[in-house]
Design brief:
Length: 191
């Protein structure tokens, strides 16, 4: 058998094996493009948690970085969206639960912008968020219930707020989350 043919078969086997490894290594959401234009509630339940999970390091200098982990999960109770954000920053950790009345929001209430907030002069590295999604109540009214449960021995607290932010990886994820949330808000406002 000619050497070229043997090499081509070897390359074909390697390419096939590499393709299988890539398929198995890719997260599920990346293997089949999600469609937030379909059923937005189901799409958010299936995809928001993976897109809004970030782990990175941040601090005032490259030598004083603390690990930051934030994961957001979503549930729906009719037209009330419940977001739970588990956050750990260095030694501090907490869970924030937001109850958001979707019918009270405008279809322009959900926006995305590149980047995320870091104090002046700070640096970050790792799987940093690429976008911040903001859910804001029109006219700044504090209609969102917030429950904060810290894990440092202090008492939990309840607040009302008018803004919730989500840190997201990848521009496409941010766009799809904004699109799906806007569709859910629109449906709730029609009821």
């Amino acid at each position: 058998m000619p050497v070229c043919l043997v090499r081509m078969r070897e390359l074909a086997r390697l390419a096939a094996a590499f393709g299988v490894v890539l398929t198995l290594a890719m997260p599920a959401w990346a293997q089949s493009p999600p469609d937030p234009g379909g059923e937005p509630v189901k799409w958010l339940l299936d995809n928001l948690g993976g897109a809004a999970c970030v782990v990175y390091e941040a601090g005032p200098s490259p030598f004083r970085l603390a690990r930051v982990t934030e994961n957001t999960e979503v549930q729906f109770d009719g037209c009330r969206m419940v977001l739970q954000q588990a956050t750990a920053e260095g030694e501090r950790s907490e869970i924030r639960t937001f109850r958001i009345p979707l019918a009270a929001l405008a279809t322009t209430s959900v926006t995305s912008r590149p980047g995320f907030f870091l104090p002046e002069g700070w640096t970050s590295r790792g799987d940093v968020p690429t976008h911040t999604i903001t859910i804001a109540v029109p006219d700044g009214r504090p209609l969102i219930d917030e429950h904060v449960e810290p894990f440092d021995g202090t008492a939990s607290r309840d607040n009302r707020t008018n803004v919730v932010t989500l840190l997201v990886r990848h521009e496409e994820n941010a766009r799809q989350i904004v699109q799906a949330l806007t569709r859910v808000i629109d449906r709730c406002r029609e009821r």
